Amino acid sequence: MSKLAWQPYAAQKHSTVTGTLMQLAGVQDAHHPPRTVLVWLPPSYAASQQHYPVIYFHDGQNVFDDATSCSGEWHADEILTELAAEGLEAIAVGVPNGGDDRRFYEYSPIPSADSALPLGGGGSDYVAYLADTVKPLVDAEFRTLPDAAHTTVIGSSMGGVISLQAIQQRPDVFGHAGLMSPAFWTNDGYSLEQTALLPAPSGRIWVDVGGKESDDPERASAYWQDAAQFADLLRPRLAERLRFVSDPDAIHHETAWAKRLPAALRFLVWGL
């Protein structure tokens, strides 16, 4: 790892990145092949000595640049630039998934019970990769506020599932979690069971869901009902530290998550 060096982002043709984006290639551990981690720096970073809260995004290739996304970007860089104009600044880290053949495995906490689903069960190793490999590299290079109280993890669909896993598995590292359209249906109730059994998170949880998460009515209902049940499980214990947002017209897509992202970040990072 000592030979790795942060570089300015290698923009592609038709890149849509706003602001300062850095990259570190070859970030790997024993369980994860090399990938390029992205770090977006707030507008005041270069001219200040300030330290900033940090947001870790899963599916990092979809977070900042439409040119690298599979179906559109989250516009996190533009949204964070707008928040910075309000005095709300944070560093954002985009951690790409391992590719179509590995994404489900990395983001799922247990082996798949449904034979129609890809192989699951790599979630614990992925959380360890984030906490013990990626985060130390970010903290060593940039002026972060490294404690859990200033560290947020956020993702959508399976990324929502692994965000919950992260805050449950490593509460010493990840203080707040954003679960956008979480695909709890993929683990046959495991995420909900763990939520009921484990101590309540000490930080803030954002969970949201749309009414049109799938063209399959049964699957769409599962997204909606599971998210609502998750919120019901935590509401008595978290009170104002839980935010549940439902939108009957929202679909399962980056455009929907980007629309909800400003409110999610205000709540998770700054408690607004």
Please characterize this protein's 3D structure.
The chain has 272 residues and is an alpha/beta fold. It has a single domain, classed as Alpha/Beta hydrolase fold, catalytic domain (Rossmann fold), CATH 3.40.50. The chain is built from seven helices and nine strands; from the N terminus they run E-E-E-E-H-E-H-H-E-H-E-H-E-H-E-H. The chain has a nine-stranded mixed sheet with strand order 1-2-3-5-4-6-7-8-9, with helices on both faces. Helix 1 runs parallel beside helix 7. The longest helix has 22 residues. The radius of gyration is 17 Å and the shape is globular. The N and C termini lie far apart (37 Å). InterPro entries: AB_hydrolase_fold, Esterase-like, Mycobacterial_A85_antigen.
The overall pLDDT average reads: 96
Q: What portion of residues belong to β-strands?
A: 15-25%
According to CATH, what is the class? Alpha Beta
Distance between the termini: 37 Å
Biggest β-sheet description = 9 strands, mixed
The global form is globular
Gyration radius (Cα, Å) is 17 Å
The helix content, as a percent range, equals: 25-40%
What's the total helix number? 7
CATH superfamily: Alpha/Beta hydrolase fold, catalytic domain
Which structural class do you get from the secondary structure elements?
Answer: alpha/beta
Low-confidence stretches: none
CATH architecture: 3-Layer(aba) Sandwich
H and E order:
EEEEHEHHEHEHEHEH
The total beta strand count reads: 9
Number of domains: 1
* Cross-sheet strand order for the largest sheet: 1-2-3-5-4-6-7-8-9
InterPro entries: AB_hydrolase_fold, Esterase-like, Mycobacterial_A85_antigen
Pfam family, one: Esterase
